[in-house]
Amino acid sequence: MSVEPEVPIVQVEEVRENPVLYKIISSDNHVFTISEHAVKLSKTLWDLITNLGLTAENALDNPIPVENVNGKNMETIVQFCERHKYDEEEPEYTNYIREFVLPEWDRQLLSIDNEELFQLILATNYLDIQKLMDYCCRVIGDMAKDKTPEELRIIYGIPTDAEDDALERSASDSPGPSG
Amino acid sequence: MKFLHFPILVMKEILKNMDPIVLINLSLISKKMSFLILHGNPSRFKISLSDYLTITSGQESYNIYLCRGKSNLVAVKVAQGMCSVNWNDTWPKLLFHILKVFKCPITTVTGFLLGPVKFREAMQQVIRGNFEIQDMDLRNSSMGSDVLGRMFEEANVTGTLTLNREYESTMQCPKDLKYLLSENSDWFTIDKLIASRCVVIEVTKCSLTNFELDEYLKKWQNGDYPNLEYFFTSGIEPMELLDGLGWCRTGSLVVS
Q: Measured between CB atoms, which of B6, B17, B44 is closest to A141?
């Protein structure tokens, strides 16, 4: 697989420390390099790398296309993975709310508008990055603190019962595929 | 953001990270949302009733005030300060809503701290929803035998019932109860012993006669009443000593 020469290459500073690099192409054709330790945080990407048999020698010549994630989200994800690549493994999930403090660096990284956060969570889910998912969920959960149901409804874009009923009625009134 | 457009696994992740008060407020947005709350794994919460309606999640306790009458906001005390639930009805109805949405049992009811009026109001809602109560501690509670007896005919108490007051014969034992610990058990007659499905019964000062107890124990030795594993009583003397039964000189009987 070859890389388009005019495609911008996003280089995250921490990447340069690690000799084993992989290339990822986002849905809008941005190319990112990511270190081996960092890419392992994404179960989806690491499975793909393993299944494709990519090695230190051939990794850079075989960029991995990720069609479900755009360049903006991929940049955030690469930054996150590089930042956390040497973190210790998380303790087992208990039955309670996970007690962790969201680090300031990550809070800044995730200080984006609701719609961007929504897209980032979808990308995180697709790439299966548990730690980023935890952090995103914490941000979403923190939005809900001290809010009334009406405020929550607006923040999360949840329809009222009346809106749900109207949607159901219009769905049942509309003609089916045949006509 | 369209929360309902998230894949279900993502929704679960988000809801699992929310505290119970946020989940209650979310459940009030719409019927659909109240069903989705189950994905937040509310079985991780322990709900208890005493001087507060307390929801415990790990180390954190959310104490909901049991205020009289209706109010738009129900105050909740937490370690870091106060928060609130936007509930426009009485607290027993809020209890009903929480148990219905979270689908988890009440872990403990402490009657003495709750007081008789609130206890009755709470139990009406618990019985209405056929919700489970695990343990009920009625020591020093002033509830009367008639009220409790009627309540226990319907209430789904499945763990331990602890009593220490004297009751009349109208007092009943909840039918699915596992452990009965009762002092001053004059109300506990042979009919109630026979009807009981308890695993452990500790009744002191009960009204069983020697003859009744001997008959019961013989049948138990022959395989009747299979649920019973441990029985303790005091103040009576079986006429015959049955094999395998412990009998103390102080006048108490231990069967296990």
A: B17
**Quick check: B57 and B45 in contact, CB under 8 A?**
yes
Tens of pLDDT, residue by residue over A41-74, are 999 999 999 999 988 888 888 999 999 999 999 9
User: What's the CATH code, domain A9-88+102-157?
Assistant: 3.30.710.10
Q: Is the CB of A122 less than 8 angstroms away from the CB of B26?
A: no
For B58, name the nearest residue in chain A, comparing CA atoms only.
Answer: A96
ipTM of the complex: 0.82
Residues sharing a CB contact under 8 Å with residue A78, sequence separation 6 or more, in sequence order: A10, A12, A15, A24, A32, A34, A38
- Closest to B86 (Cβ–Cβ): which among A95, A115, A149? A149
- Calpha distance B132→B126 (Å, rounded): 8
Question: What share of residues in chain B are helix, strand, coil (percent, to 5)?
Answer: 35, 25, 40
Predicted pLDDT of residue B143: 86
Average of per-residue pLDDT across A90-115: 79
A115 to chain B, minimum CA–CA distance in Å?
5
Domain locations along chain B: 1-102, 105-234+248-256
Q: Angle between the B91-102 and B20-27 helix axes, to the nearest 10 degrees?
A: 100
Q: What is residue B213's predicted lDDT score, i.e. its pLDDT? A: 85
Of the pLDDT bands very low, low, confident and very high (cuts 50, 70, 90), residue A9 is low
**What whole-number distance in Å separates Cα of residue B42 and Cα of residue A18?**
43
In this prediction, residue A147 has a pLDDT band, given cuts at 50, 70 and 90, of very high
pTM score: 0.84
Which of B232, B235, B239 shows the shortest CA–CA distance to B256?
B232
Please tell me the distance from the alpha carbon of residue A87 to that of residue A109, in angstroms, as a whole number.
Answer: 17
Q: Where are the domains of chain A?
A: 9-88+102-157
The reported pLDDT for the residue numbered B227 is 92
Is residue B78 within 8 A of residue B90, CB to CB? The reply is no
Please, what is the Cα angle at A108 between A106 and A110, to 5 degrees? 70
Nearest to B14 among A96, A140, A157 (CB): A140
Q: Residue ranges of the alpha helices (H) in A69-160? A: 71-84, 104-109, 114-127, 130-143, 149-156
Q: Which residues does chain B have with pLDDT short of 50?
A: 248-250
